[in-house]
Each structure stands twice: as C-alpha cells, then as structure tokens.
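Exercise 7.
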Amino acid sequence: MTSPSTDGRPNWAIVLFERRSRLLVVVLLLATVAVGSGLLFGSGGGFEVATFDVSSPEHEALEMTSDRFDRDTRPVSQVVIHSESTDTVSKPVLLETLRVQQDLRADPTINATLTENQPTVGLANAVALASDPRIALGGETDIEGKYRTLEGRSDEEIDAALGVALRSDDLSPPDQPPVSALVPREYEAGQQANAQLIIVVHDEEATDAELLEAQEAIESTADERFEQSGVESFVLGEQLVLDRSGSATGESFLVVGPLIVLVVVGLLALSYRDPLDVALAAVGIGLVFVWLVGAMSWVGLSFNQLLIAVPCLLVGLSVDYSLHVVMRYREHRTRQPAWPVATAMAAGVAGVVVAIGATTLTTATGFLAGLASPIGLLREFGVAAAIGIGSAFVVFGLLLPALRIELDGLVDRSDRPGAPSTVGSLDGVRRLLVACGSIGSRRPVLVVALAVLVAAGGAMGATAVETSTDRTDFLPEEQAGWMASLPEPLQPASAGLREQTLFVESTFESPSDRTVEILITGNVTAGSVDRTLNAAHAHAEDRPTTATSAADGPVIESPLTTVEQIAAGNETVATLAAERGVTGTGDDDQDLTALFDAVYAADEAAASGTIHRTAGSDNGGEYDALRLTVVIEETADAEAIYTDARSTAAVIDDDPNLQATATGEPVVEAVEQRAILETVLTTFLLALGVITALLVGVFRLRHRSWSLGLVAMLPVLLAIAWLIGTLWVLSIPFNAETALIVAIAIGLGTDYTVHLTDRFVTERRAGGRRNALRLTLVETGGAVLASGVTTMAGFGLLMLTIIPSLQRFGFVTAVVTGYALMATLVVLPALLVLWDRRLTTLDSEGVT
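Solution. The predicted structure, written as tokens, is:
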C-alpha cells in the first residue's frame, strides 16, 4: 500500500480535506448564506427585458437631440385590425372602428391616459371627414357625428371618400401619420384590404403602470368589439410588449426548465450510477445558482432574456467540474482501496485542481473579455458568467468534496463489486474513446491536416457572416404546437409579439420619413454658421442616400429652412435674415443671436425644432445647439447612411466654431452593427491572447513545457473556425446573443483540452505513449464526454423556448460545444502524439 504521506498530495489538500473538511463545509455554507442574502438585500436580481444599449457618441447625441429639440414624445398604442377573408375597410368594419374609439374614450382606465386633443386616429375618421367636411365643425373628436355620416353613406360613396382621404394630407391630426399609413402598402380605394390601424395617443405624463393597464384595457375592448365583425385584432404598445416579453420568458422556462433538469439528472445518473453523487451534483448546481443570483443582486444586475442563458452554461460547467473530481476520486478509491475516504478525496482533488483552476481562469477570462464591448448587455453577460464560473469552482472544487467526505464518513459508500467506477469504464463509451485515440495515434498528421483544412474553409466565411440588430429577436413568438398538449398551468401564453410586430412592419408604411440628424454644438451664433450650414446642405443633397422628396416638409431641414419659412410671413425676421446674409445678401459675418431671437419671438414652436435655447431670463437664455435633419431613402443601407451622415457632419466640423455629430436611428443602427463586429473581434483577440498566455504559463510551471499550452489551444481555434463556417452556411448573423459566442467557445473549449492535456502529460511520465493516451481518453475523456453531452443537451433545450434570441443562442452554443468536444477527443490526441514524438526526438538528440 502506498503511504498517504508520500503519494505527492500537496499540503493544502491534506489540510483542507483530511484535517479540516468539516470546518471547510461550515465556512463555505456560511459564505453561501452571505452571498445568497443578496436576494433579500441586494438591488438587482429581478427580471428586465433586454435592451440593446451601446456606449457611443452617436447614442449620446441622439439622447441630446431628444432632450433639446421639440418633438412629439407622446406614447401611442396601435390597434391592428386584420382578416384573411373579410374586407377590413368595408362599411361595417369602419363603423365598428368608430364604436371602438367611442368605447376607448369612455373607459375610465383608458381615458385617464389619453391626450386631450384627438386621442384616437382612425381610417373611418378620415373617410367621414372626406365624405362630409362639415362634420369637423362639430369638433374633431365628435365620433358620434362621424358615425352618423358614414352610416348614411352607400358603399360606393364610402369608396369614393376613401380615395379622397388617401390622397389628402389634411385629414390627419397634426403630428400623426397620414391616412395612407393606416392601410396596407400599395392599397388603392376600391380594393379589399386585409388590415387597417387605429392609433391611440396617450398623454406623455402617463406612468408606465397606467399605460400598461390602459393598453390591456384597449386590447380587451377591441377583442370584444371586433370578434362579432368577422375580423381579428391585436394591440401593440411599448409597455404591453415589455410586460409580455418578460412574462413569456418566464413561462418558457417553466416548460424548458424542468426538461433541462430532467435531462441533466438523467445524464448524471448514467454517468455516476450512484444516487449520492447524483444528489450532491444536483445540490451543487443549486448552490451555484444561489451564489450567482445573490452576487448579481449585490452588484445590481438583473436577469434578462440573454442572461437567462448563463444558468445553462453553469449547468454544463458544474457537471464538468463534478465529473472530474468524482471520477478522479473513484480512481483512487479503486486503485487504493485501503485509503481512507478523506485521503482519496484529497488525492483526487489535487489531481484535477490545476486543470479545473486553469479552466476557471480561462473560461472566466473569455467571458470577461466582453467588458471590452461597447454593448452594455454583453458587458453584463460577461460579468454574470464570470461570477457563476467562479462560484462553480468554489462549490465543486471545495465545498462538495468536503461534504462528500463527511457523508461517506457516516455510511460505508465503497463501490459495489462489478460497478464501473468511471464513465469511461462503460463498454460502449470505452470503445468510442479508444477509437478516437486510435485515429489520432495512427494517422496524426492526416487527422490534423483534415481538421485544419476544414477550419480554413470555415474561417473564409468570417467576412461573409452578417451582423444584425433586429430587436424583434427578443420578442416572444407564437406558442409551439407541441406546447398545447401540456397541462394548462404550464402552457406559455400565446403572445406572438414577434409575428405581430413583423406583420405591422411588413404591412404598413412607416408613419414618418426615415431621417438622420446632425447635432451641432459650440458657438452656434457665430457669423460663419450660416455659410457652414449652406455648405452642409449642398453636401447632403449630393449624397446617394439622401431622398429626392419627403412626405411632409423639406428633404433637408435646419435653422436655415426654419428662418426661410418664418421670414416668408414675418418682416422682422426677413429683414434680419437679409442683413446677416442668411438669404444670400448682406453681411454674412454678423452674429446670429438677434436673428434667432426674432425667430423665437415670431414662432417659438417652429424655432425650437432646429434651434435650442437654454432657459433664462434674458430673451429666454443662450443658444447652445442646432439640428440639421436629412430625409434618406427607405431602402438605403445602414452602413452607407452612416458614411454619408458622417461626411456631412465633417463639413460642419471644419468650421472651428462648431462641433457636429451624426446621429438618428439609421446611424445608431449602423453603430450597433459595428459594435457587434467589434465585440466579436475584440473578445476573440483579447480572450485568445490572455488565455493562451495563461495556458502557456500554467503548463510551463506544471510540466516545464512552453509549447504544451499552444497544443491545448489549437483544437479550440479549430472549433471556432468550424463554428464560423457553420454560421456562414446557415446564414446565422452575429447579433446580441451570438457576439460573445467566440469567447464562449474559447472558454468551453479550453475546459476540455486542459483536462486531457494535463492528464496525458502526467500519465506519459509513468508509462508509454500509447498507454498514456488510452488511459487519458478512457478516464478523463469519459468525464469530458459526459460533460460535453450534458452541456449540449442543456443548451439545445433552449431551442424549445418561444424567444428567438434564446433559440438561436441555444443552437449555436450546442453546436460549438459539439465542435469543441470533437476537436478535443479526435484532434487533440493527434496533436499530443505529434508533440510527444517531437519531444522524444529532441530528447534522443540531447536537446533540452
């Protein structure tokens, strides 16, 4: 029997697990209580709907333009009436929409949130006005008068009035979409329409809670009215979407969560074949979740659709840690049956602690690389994942081994005769793992060459993988058909928000022009400003993305157009504009303060749209910002829009008195797409550099080899290249949830390769190459295989949710886990054989 004191166990393992295991359990349980108390006392830990926030000058400029310049910020709800068979613009449906508007205004809950002037806008309203303009004299909110007018019209008269309404720009209330935006694109009077819109305008002072209650009441009222008219309806409103997105995510996990638990427990049962180990692993996973949620609460992080994927990651990593510790413990129990439980556990943990410690460092580093991302959501994801990974190491590397010692001390848990001690001992698993080793050891050059060739093909697709910032990916879909067979309490609500949003976007025209904005700050009243703005106008007009016409107003709007419009009806403004050269004559170097004062005095509402004046007692304050707006082509590409907008801003920046920033929704969209690509590249390079350095350092210290860390890293890079090729082939874009997939691949991949590499080198010292490789694959490879399959299953089950972002994240992560597993079990053995051959050759030649 080998003496426990001379078997190479480090002193820390002896102290922790042989002498102080009970104290270790107590300390870590108290720490669990302290961290978990964040659920009660922390500021985070709740659920929020994911938002795609990027830190950039363009986003800051967009916020500043929203704060400084007058624009309509009233919340709206859209009531969408649709039918595949019934004409939604027929007389009965139009009349019903007026009754619905009456009901909405009469409902106290809804009415309390409505704006005072024209709170509802509908197609029937415009048709009634076109049919008899005199009814407007009774007040623009007189729904009853409009109802009586339409009721007395024939179908032909209504069609004629509808044609007039569609051609007129005067039948929609101010700041509301034109009549043509309330019917499907390309619709013409006399045709059958499959949809129409009612717009409900809320007061901007209404709270989020009031808006949610009102939108739910609007939905209920519309459903009751329209179900008798042969049409269907749904309501879209910001608060309703946020509320149902959060609910749908939670409801999805009520279904998928138990499935994940069932699959994981089942796989653990197959791997361990011991109820105690299965129970301890399940308890350990629960404790990791307590640490995760508690720590997130303490640091103020809340869960969202993307962060919910972190627990799935931790299940896989926890199972991996547990399997390696338990299987190594069982090996020592089998080889040294006379050893006490504590001695075997100390030796087992000591044998894998470097590997799981390195895995913890590399995996956490991979996710923390996301802190370099400009996307706040991905930074939060990286922090949450790193917290969970560290928690998994504490629980499965320290707490559960000590707890297992205490439990085994109470009951004799020696392995049953004939029971396989490790996963690799199972016949089918052993044959599979041995086959993997045989392929690598017999034809290592061929295996590596084929793997690199496929990886090269995949890497070529890197430039072809697109980026996407489609926010509908975070909206829940319709309930899957198989969910209808579930017990009613478990069935997710059939929200269908994604389908509804896409229907509105594809069916109706945008209610307003697509625009970019240039925020101008600095000395905005300097005499050179009008010349600079004229140059910017000319430059913007020549850009290919600039529209040739606008639905309402000029294509390019700035303080110059505001001055021209007001000067046409105000002599004072016209005179001052002429004196200062704004209209092409006079001294164009004069300060513009007096002109802007006159513009504000003549029409403050119009002036405040392009010229910002701070609050103050003298003439209202100082002028500190201007806005230039350019209407762009609807089909223009976001990147082209970004380039043109930046070039226009650069013209203004050339004026030493001014600073200009291009912004607006299309510009922000392009910035977000760039941020995703930046995240992919930055996290990859940062994670690759730091993790490679860590692996090289760890293996140099442990095995005196600089090259071994590079060998362990190469299969991970191959798996990433295979993944990129898969994304390309399947047309899956990089977006919010896949941007960190490269870091995830590095983290999970190094987990697998570190264990096998460390075990092979350790066993190689004690025996021949073939035996070392076989033992490594059968023992450690079995644990890696079980861990990988469990991780793939956990992530794969996310595809059963009704959230597209989670579905795609689950699929992509399951794929990259499978690739990492394949690279570890097939390619890594070949690399280790080649590395060992080279080392043997150098040793035989006397090279050190």
